[in-house]
Amino acid sequence: MRESKQLELTVDGQTFRVVHDVGTGAGTPLVLMNGIGAKLELLQPLVDRLSPERDIIRFDAPGVGGSATAKNVYRLKGLAKKVSGILDQLGFDQADVLGISWGGALAQQFAHTQSHRLRRLILVSTATGAIMVPAHPRILAKMITHRRYTDPDYLESVAHELYGGSMRNDPSSAVNALRTASTSHNSAGYFMQLSAGLGWTSIPFLPRVKAPTLVMSGNDDPLIPACNAKIIAKLIPNSELNIFDGGHLSLVTEADIHGPEVEEFLDRITF
Question: Which domains does the chain have, with CATH numbers?
Answer without folding.
Answer: 3-267 (3.40.50.1820)
